[in-house]
DNA sequence: GTCTATATTTAGATAGAC
DNA sequence: GTCTATCTAAATATAGAC
């Protein structure tokens, strides 16, 4: 029997609250979602939500803390791929896969809005984005080494830029169209080494 | 002497309120900016703000109504350029030039967040974004005609994608770094016709 | 037209019973 | 742990004096 609190059960309840809150934050936004709304969605009272979280912002952060392990798993899966450029494109497509889910769009926008106001949220996001950036940076460096990626690019800066372009896929508000093809084309061509004839002319 | 209200003066006061409000909405967001804040910034009482606008959302819309003439001017300036591809890249750079202004960043995020909740705001934004999309679509079509842009692209879809990428560049604006070079490379290569040797291999 | 004063509503957070 | 009840604070919008 557990000596003090059942830490597993606490984690479960927190998770359930975060899941319900994510849906509401995505559609209504942070300010317009009330703690009472969250409590109702998860089937408890508002008082109980404050038992699991010190305040409303902490619930918001919990939503994004859930992304860290997923990012780690994805990055790890591609880290040792034989063909780094192919791996980059697959990873990018996977990162953008949720883009057509309107909830993902709403959450991204709300995150951008709130991140300036909560230093602890900055830290949460920094960790997840950092994992992805590390992974992309490594793959870009390996692509440069094997000649499939433009070696003139700074791997870290290119990785950061690619993350920006992935965000663009999320902003593509039209749910009717899949942004992944345009995204793949964009990233593939961005990374592409300078074709020899153009190199001679001093462009791209 | 004016028979009824001085319509010019009303427009001036509305403008002054919109300018002050823009700054506040950009930094604090829509919900956290109070009408009292706006009134104080412009030097009047909250009651006066409600004399010029029916409600707070109307003040927010007024902020974005100011963008329409600017977009028209920019697009018109490039519409008849001799080299459409060059014009696209210049126009894109200009659109992204504001990206390093934190106020522009804040306003864009807030716009994305609020646009879902206000049908009248949708209309305001649709007009401005529509002008830019028309302009880009025309330039892309002309580029396809003169061989500087991949003719396999649908001009309208390509224009929409470019707008999204510009927005993303805005959003992740690290104020320390200029996104325009990466943006130019990205757009130029995205639009580029398929090099002949790659075409033979059936790759994009 | 601009103000002051206020009605109305609502939300975050807490206290304390069970 | 979960609830109900409530405190406190703030914000939109209006009323009505000047």
Report on this model:
The structure is a homodimer of 204-residue chains. Chain A has helices spanning 7-28, 35-42, 46-52, 56-65, 67-79, 84-95, 102-114, 119-145, 155-171, 180-191, 196-200. Chain A is mainly alpha-helical and 204 residues long. In chain A, α1 (7-28) packs across α4 and α9 (155-171) runs antiparallel to α10 (180-191). The first copy, chain A, is 72% helix and 0% strand. The N and C termini of chain A lie far apart (67 Å). Chain A has eleven helices and no strands. The A-B interface holds A 29, 31-32, 106, 109-110, 112-113, 116, 157, 160-161, 163-165, 167-169, 171-172, 174, 177, 179, 182, 185-186, 188-190, 192, 195, 204 and B 29, 31-32, 106, 109-110, 112-113, 116, 157, 160-161, 164-165, 167-169, 171-172, 179, 182, 185-186, 188-190, 192, 195, 204. The structure holds a DNA duplex (18 and 18 nucleotides).
Largest interface: A-B, 32 and 29 residues
Assembly of the depicted chains: homodimer
| Major sheet characteristics of chain A | none
Distance between the termini of chain A: 67 Å
Helix-strand makeup class of chain A: mainly alpha
Count the strands of chain A?
0
What overall form of chain A do the CA principal axes indicate? elongated
Q: Into which percent range does the helicity of residues of chain A fall?
A: over 70%
Poorly predicted regions of chain A are none
Order of helices and strands of chain A: HHHHHHHHHHH
- Our estimate of the beta-strand percent of chain A is under 5%
Task: Write down the overall mean pLDDT of chain A.
Answer: 94
What is the CA-atom radius of gyration of chain A, in angstroms?
A: 20 Å
Number of helices of chain A: 11
